[in-house]
Automatic annotation (TrEMBL):
This is Alpha-galactosidase. It catalyses: Hydrolysis of terminal, non-reducing alpha-D-galactose residues in alpha-D-galactosides, including galactose oligosaccharides, galactomannans and galactolipids. It comes from the Bacteria. One of its GO terms (molecular function) is alpha-galactosidase activity. Keywords: Carbohydrate metabolism, Disulfide bond, Glycoprotein, Glycosidase, Hydrolase, Polysaccharide degradation, Secreted, Signal. InterPro entries: Aldolase_TIM (IPR013785), GH (IPR017853), Glyco_hydro_27 (IPR002241), Glyco_hydro_b (IPR013780), Melibiase_C (IPR041233). GO terms for cellular component: extracellular region. One of its GO terms (biological process) is polysaccharide catabolic process. It is found in: Secreted. Its EC number is 3.2.1.22. Signal peptide: none annotated. Its main location: secreted. Residues 323-397 form the Alpha galactosidase C-terminal domain.
Amino acid sequence: MWVMKRLSAALTLLLALYLTVSGVSGFGQEKMLAPTPPMGWSTWNHFHHAISDALVRAQTDAMVSSGMKDAGYVYVNIDGGWEGERDANGVLHPTSAFPDMKALGDYIHSKGLKFGLYTGPGPRTCAGAVASYGHEEQDAKMFASWGVDFLKYDLCSYREIMKAQSGGDIAKSDDLMKAAYEKMHRALLATGRPIVFSMCQYGLGSVWEWGPGVGGNLWRTSGDISDSYGRMTSIGFREAGLSKYAGPNHWNDPDFLEVGNGGMSPDEERTHFSLWAMLAAPLIAGNDLTQMSEETRSILLNKEVIAVDQDPLGKAGDRAYAEGPLEVWARPLAGGDMAVAMFNRLNGTVRITLRLPDVGWKGAAAARDLWTHKDIGVLRGSYTVAVPRHGVVMLRLSRAQ
């Protein structure tokens, strides 16, 4: 009996150590780094590689002055374009546009915000800049010393290594990919600094099934977004069926937001923002925060829609039913509420009917429109509303008093 107890204790300790390293539990550094989907801003969608220390500081200031910080946007993320070359000691130096990354991180932190950065497991990033292959521990320590709070890790050129080393064996290729992400995760853990780990590998190998096991706090479920209604919807609506894989500390990521970049109409951008909120997706803005129109501000700062995305229950929404290009999605919320979104993917205004039983709602519902910010009364059985071309009507349902 004594031997069995000692063996059980040893196995428990080994399991705890494994979970700490693998990131599938709440031990150590992994303790809820992302209890709700991360919110912030990234350089990539609008500026691509045309970035500098001065630009990032200006965007940081605008994040505060625009009200985005108060609305919950926290991370200031520098995507590709900051990387210079490695020296003889393997140290990766930023380009001359970023003379002091530690000072930049301190500036971001001084505004009550967090600092995000980008690299990848391959020798080069997608744009050909130096990445972290063979220098994972060295880079992780450097990022931590700069005060980095969020790391986007982009597969890019590592796919060439996977192809060369797997010999065409898909299972072996997937194992190589998992090992590469786990290696950086362990390197981040070893720094002792809490760093959100954003895995960007485009949904390969059904990442939603194994992402938490290699330490991912969020993982891309798709290829890159672009600033068009067609591309946005092809990514967003393809998320149907993945809701069970999302939750506190591990989120599906259909890529950053394109709101405010000019390629979509206001109705299309409201669809974009609503769908991402229904999916419990990270809300990482990608526009120029210093040049926001009132229309853009009204979308990105819609606190009622943001509250759906950030709902503490942490359950993602999913498609409830569809009639051709007319889709109705539902998401359970804390306290027994529910978010419902009616999407019109047609090229003209149409009427869509919300059928309460078909979204799992029993009885009457008090409804509020989250874009008009108006209570619309008590719904019984169904509700029919006109939805504009490529638009959305998004409601919050509560128990009728």
